[in-house]
Specification:
alpha+beta; 4 strands; Alpha-Beta Plaits
């Protein structure tokens, strides 16, 4: 007896450790496709509405300046490695000058924008273009036209200040700022699609979890997995299979016989058919 109990215990442990039937899970997900579609619609709508009210598009505007070394003229045809190195090093110096109060406050005064020095400084970024002597200044602004105005004004003010501070050097405009066509930050459509995808994943996860936690016996394999008893018989569902059926429960309640003789007559009549 103890050996039989041990075998049953081991068999049950083995059955519980069986791999999840991916095909059954896929069927469960496809069977409840309408839940996923509803989640996608609701998630996309919520993402669109939330981003429409809270997310502000930001536009990046670039202006390119050439750092001119004192010993190197713009029209010079002979450029040595030392000249290029000196110009590249000057880029970092020009970036520091750009972030000074003198330059940025002058930009605010000329453009008339309603920003403080710290606000404008956060909107500006500068770096060397591909490690060359070209200085790239980027202005990030929710107003694209205002960003273009600030970027071009920075190029003018920075050139003036550099000529005052560093003798024999200057900054030449390579490419002026133009109006950007698209925003640099993701738009409303991006957040709507992302929210819809997240909602779909959550819906699928919920369906899978509910299916795994459902211990209802739906087929013969479910009985064999949960119980150690042999399956003796199954009751066919004629209504679902489309087969013929007869007897007491095949008729409507009002048509069912009220006594045993009528029931026997109905049974004989059904068999004769």
């Amino acid at each position: 007896m103890e050996d039989n109990k041990q075998k049953r215990s081991d068999a049950r442990a083995t059955q519980q450790a069986e791999e999840i039937d991916l095909l059954e899970l896929t069927r469960a997900v496809l069977h409840r496709w309408w839940i996923i579609m509803l989640a996608i619609i609701l998630g996309g709508a919520l993402g669109y509405g939330f981003s429409k009210k809270t997310v502000t598009p930001v536009y990046d505007t670039d202006v390119l300046l050439y750092v001119n070394n004192s010993s190197l003229s713009v029209g010079s045809t002979s450029i040595s490695l030392s000249d290029m190195t000196a110009s590249s090093n000057l880029v970092e110096t020009y970036i520091e000058i750009l972030n000074t109060r003198t330059v940025l406050n002058e930009v605010i005064a000329r453009t008339g924008v309603n920003y403080s020095y710290y606000q404008l400084k956060q909107m500006i970024s500068a770096s060397s273009k591909n490690k060359t002597a070209v200085l790239c200044i980027t202005v990030s602004d929710p107003n694209a036209e205002e960003g273009v105005l600030i970027a071009n004004t920075i190029a003018t003010v920075l050139a003036e200040q550099i000529m005052k501070i560093i003798e024999g050097t200057s900054v030449q405009l390579v490419d002026a700022a133009v109006l950007p066509e698209v925003a640099a930050t993701p738009g409303v459509r991006y957040y709507a699609i992302r929210a819809a995808l997240i909602a779909a994943v959550l819906a699928i996860a919920l369906i899978v979890v509910c299916d795994l936690l459902n211990d209802k016996i739906r087929k013969e394999d479910d009985f064999a997995k949960n119980y150690d008893y042999p399956l003796l018989a199954t009751i066919p569902d004629h209504a679902k299979s489309g087969g013929s059926h007869y007897g007491y429960y095949s008729s409507k309640p009002e048509q069912r016989p009220t006594n045993q003789s009528e029931a026997a007559n109905d049974t004989r009549t059904s068999k004769n058919r």
